Amino acid sequence: MNLNNVHSIGVFDSGVGGLTVVRALMERLPFENIIYFGDTARVPYGIKSVETITRYATQITEFLLKQKVKLLIIACNTIASVAYESVQEISPVPVLDVIDAGCPYRRSRNAQQNVGVIGNTGHINSNAYARAIHRYDPDVRIYSQACPLFVPLVEEGWLDHPVTRPYSPGVSQTGGR
């Protein structure tokens, strides 16, 4: 065991997107040790079964617990959506996730009673965001839409690429006719 890892915060994701969570932690907790596990070997998770995602999450959790972490943060919407309870059941340390963390913020920043949620198919089918938001505000109306290509497009850096624009027959992807 590496003594530098004792009482670190363990953060995990299906890929590298969770590094945004790590960056936020480092800004707010600059003296904390952080161990990050990005499962780039088995990404994407959104197309996998609940059983497979839960198995992967359990394996990662067991690995991080062997590193003597004092806290686990699930930085992946998909894992948090379908495997949070399984992670929590096997963890002797507190478990936080990005879904629960984002819901109170939504309430404080949005006076509207409508919320849109996008994500991969597994994440949307789990209905996790709607359940979490309704815990804070049962009157909010949730509109969910699966966008299975969203993460691959973002990870490829195709934020301003013709493929990211809506398709309309007869209209070119550059905006003209």
Please tell me what the overall shape is: globular
CATH class identity of the largest domain: Alpha Beta
Coarse structural class: alpha/beta
Q: Sheet bearing the most strands, described?
A: 4 strands, parallel
Query: What are the segments in which pLDDT stays under 50 over at least 5 consecutive residues?
Result: none
Please state the second-level CATH architecture of the largest domain: 3-Layer(aba) Sandwich
Q: What percentage of amino acids are in beta strands?
A: 15-25%
How many separate helices?
Answer: 7
* Mean pLDDT level: 84
Query: What's the SSE pattern?
Result: EHEHEHEHEHHEH
Number of domains: 2
Give me the side-by-side strand order of the main sheet.
2-1-3-4
Distance between the termini: 63 Å
Describe the fold and architecture.
- The protein has 177 residues and is of the alpha/beta class.
- It folds into two domains: 3-99, 3-Layer(aba) Sandwich (Rossmann fold), CATH 3.40.50.1860; 100-164, Rossmann fold, CATH 3.40.50.
- The protein is built from seven helices and six strands.
- The strands form two sheets. Strands 2-1-3-4 form a four-stranded parallel sheet, sandwiched between helices.
- The longest helix has 17 residues, at 50-66.
- The model has no long low-confidence stretch (mean pLDDT 84).
